[in-house]
Protein: Purine nucleoside phosphorylase DeoD-type
Amino acid sequence: MGTAHNKAEVGDIAKTVLMPGDPLRAKYIAETYLTEVKCFNSVRNMLGFTGKYNGKEISVMGSGMGMPSIGIYSYELYQFYNVESIIRIGSAGALHEDIDLKDIVFAQGACTDSRFAYQYELPGSFAPIADFSLLEQAVSEARALGTRFKVGNVVSSDIFYNVYPEAAKKWAGMGVLCVEMEAAALYMNAAKLHKKALAILSISDHILKGTELSPEERQTGFSEMMEIALKLA
Structure:
């Protein structure tokens, strides 16, 4: 079968897919955490792999940066490859005073400055939210591990270099926990196609405090996020 962006055949991809933004991070995850690994996609170097974790089949694939990119890949996984759950695993910039570097944020909802939802021709604004069963399980796993975490609203922005300096403060004023670039489109695709989605975010920098992790510290936070995500498969 395959698509313009994915050369996999139906059956090559597991029911649950972990999606980091970086395809090389997908490769690292597959090589580090999975066994019996097979590469199912290399089109545009958006690498995808299927393997086993504790005997259960799971896939991992890059999403690229931004909502247009994850919008394409997640839609195809749901619609053409019978994927049931996609778990975004990525980094985010904190907007809340009570969130520290290396904390984990579970995106209960995803605000956005994108017009991704215009395609649905809704008579109002759509509120993209996570699948509750995945969210509930993720929180339970985080508590068992003793991981610092927050659950709440995030903002998925189309803009990385925002020329409006007050944008972050405006979102923070509404209680938004952090900013990233993909969750809202993923949640909307899941809603439209009646599938499951959750974004698990590791805080790599604090937008308002101006602090950020070193590469070594980022790896530690990533490992905790991965330990939670893998148990959701």
Observations:
- DSSP finds six helices and ten strands in the chain.
- The two ends are 25 Å apart (CA to CA).
- The chain has a mean pLDDT of 96.
- Helices lie at 23-33, 67-80, 132-145, 167-173, 183-193, 215-230.
